[in-house]
Amino acid sequence: MALTVVPEVTINTGTLTPDQKAELFDVESRLTAYMGDYDWDSEETRLTLRIPIALQVRTATEVGPNIEYTALFAGGNKGDLSFDENAWRFRIPSGDFVHDENSFDSFLSMIDFHVRWVIAAEYDKLAEFGGKAQYELARRIGSQAMFSEMQDGWAKRNERLEQVLDPRNQDLRTLRWLTHMAYWLRSAQKSDYEAWRSVRLALDLAEGMDNPTLLGPYFKSNYHSLTDILVTAKDMDGFQLLMRLDSLDPTRTQYYQDAMLRVVE
After folding, report:
1. Which of 19, 70, 77, 117 is 20 to 30 A from residue 160's alpha carbon, by CA?
2. Which among 214, 219, 187, 181 is positioned nearest to 199, based on CA atoms?
3. Are 113 and 141 contacting, i.e. CB atoms less than 8 angstroms apart?
4. pLDDT digits (tens, 9 = 90+) for 135-190
5. How far lies 82's CA from each of 117, 230, 239, in Å?
6. What pLDDT, on the 0 to 100 scale, is given for residue 1?
7. Where are any strands of DSSP class E within the chain?
8. Strand boundaries in 77-211, DSSP class E
9. Where residue 208 falls among pLDDT bands split at 50, 70, 90?
10. Domain extent listing, the chain
11. Residue 111 to residue 71: CA distance in whole angstroms
């Protein structure tokens, strides 16, 4: 298995009755096995991804022979991608959790959708548009959901995914690739110069995007490393460009001011 997914699953059932909690006693371990034992991608991309999934189950309601749950959901890649929902409605399949790409399940397909999205985003960092196949798998799940009786929230999830895949927003995917190429050049190739060149290409691309909504999470996750590379290169022009592009969050102003002193040393 080239791709290794290390799940970090937590399920909180604090608001449920003891009997309702008993119905869910082994779901955390079953979901951990479901995520961690599956071959999500057979390609020879050697990568280990730690993927947190956190559920806070709020209600459990009998609907005919089934129990329907609502929960808060949080997930992501422990970095520049996060998912937070406050009204996920689902049913939990009995027995072993089984992967089935050809049918929709209100519980497992939600997990699959987010895992595929995380994998795609990480593959985009390894190669320009490297996550295309995984994004398409996530998109397929979203399409299946729209024909389900439990399609609550899926229109919004699909809308967010389509925003990522919109051709008008593809520069953000290229931006993330250039940025992580810079990190690889610095750490693996020990080339500060090539890392700096990649950062400057990334910042020039970001300047042309002129989209603070898309760029905000990017800078929040990367400003430390971008600053370090520009400071090492003593690139005042590049550093001032970074400060100007990331000027919407005042919490980083002091950090940038302190770092500027290192540029001119």
Report:
1. 70
2. 181
3. yes
4. 999 999 999 999 999 999 999 999 999 999 999 889 999 999 999 999 999 999 99
5. 10, 27, 27
6. 45
7. 3-12, 47-63, 66-76, 82-90
8. 82-90
9. very high
10. 3-165, 169-263
11. 13
Length of the chain (residues) = 265
- pTM given for the model: 0.91
- For 95, phi and psi rounded to 5 degrees? 75, -165
Longest Cα–Cα distance in the chain:
71
Amino acid in position 261: L
**Which two structure tokens, joined as six digits, stand for 188?**
């693996």
Token reading at 173 = 């995917």
Q: Residue 167: how many CB atoms within 10 A of its CB?
A: 6
Which of 116-125, 129-138, 245-254 is predicted with the least confidence, judged by mean pLDDT? 245-254
The structure tokens 């931006």 sit at 175
Q: Are 199 and 220 in contact (CB under 8 A)?
A: no
- The values of phi and psi at residue 190, to 5°, are 55, 40
